[in-house]
Amino acid sequence: MPQENFNDLVAFVTVAREESFTRAAVKLGVSQSALSQTVRGLEERLGLRLLTRTTRRVSPTPAGERLLQTAGPRFDEIQTELLALSEMRDKPAGTVRITAGEHAAISVLAPALEKILPNYPDVNVEITVDYGLTDIVAERYDAGVRLGEQVAKDMIAVKIGPEMRMAVVGSKSYFQRNPWPETPQDLTAHNCIQIRMPTYGNIFPWEFEKDGHEVKVRVEGQLVFNNMGMRREAALRGLGLAYMPEDQVVAAVRRGDLIRVLEDWCEPFAGYHLYYPNRRHTSPAFAAVVDALRFRG
User: Fold this and answer.
1) One MF term in GO for this entry (predicted)?
2) Per-residue pLDDT, 88
């Protein structure tokens, strides 16, 4: 294909990935009509329909899907190599995109970035809070954050936090009305503040371990949240028992605002890891962020 048509391929790949001419036009900085004409011209030269257009979405045809799978990764590699040229600069520069859960973003990413970003004014970091197990390659993130046991084997994993523990807590007013649970199974008789996460789809079971014996309890209760802060606030108000990362409630426990139970059933487990594809060519900006996040405890 003539070199001058590479822009047409970039236009097609962007529309196919965004599944929208409108979003693709914004991303490329062109008008929607110009983008539509560019893709139509490519289809005419190839003699193939590449995209199926409806009022609600745009999706690739079988021929378009084949071209997307072939051309898309090539352009990603070119873009990565162009970003790598920034190594020739005196200071790291560029944008690093990371997807992480709420707790990891608050407890690990934010403190580390607070230290590094003032030293690298040309480095930008975009963090998307997502509770699902995001495909960072498909979604074009530079890296993601997961607990150690959740990282796929084909990824490079960098430990960025210490081991973690969970905690079951309730307020004094709650325990004035209800007995303390002695075992995880006792939680089935309590009003538990439940967790719903996209990773599981359904209500998240509370996980416990003691002396190598693992227990998962499907609790019930009047409240369901997918937000950590709201779970803690509900527990403080005496609305039920909450299952929280230990660091998010330790201060309230010390103050006496919350009472911790089943502590001997909450054993440490692998903490957060930053992960990224092992074929990724790291830019100076990305390398600087990884180095800042690396756990050295």
Assistant:
1) sequence-specific DNA binding
2) 56
In the chain, where the domains are located: 3-85, 89-162+271-293, 166-265
CATH node for 89-162+271-293: 3.40.190.10
Residue pLDDT, tens place only, 185-230: 999 999 999 988 765 557 889 999 999 899 999 999 999 998 899 9
Q: List 259's β-bridge partners, or say none.
A: 170
Backbone angles phi, psi at 91, to 5 degrees: -125, 150
Of residues 222, 179, 187, 189, the one with CA closest to residue 205: 187
pTM for the model stands at 0.67
CA-nearest of 161, 244, 239 to 206 is 244
Does domain 3-85 match CATH 1.10.10.10?
Answer: yes
pLDDT band at 133 (very low <50, low <70, confident <90, very high): confident
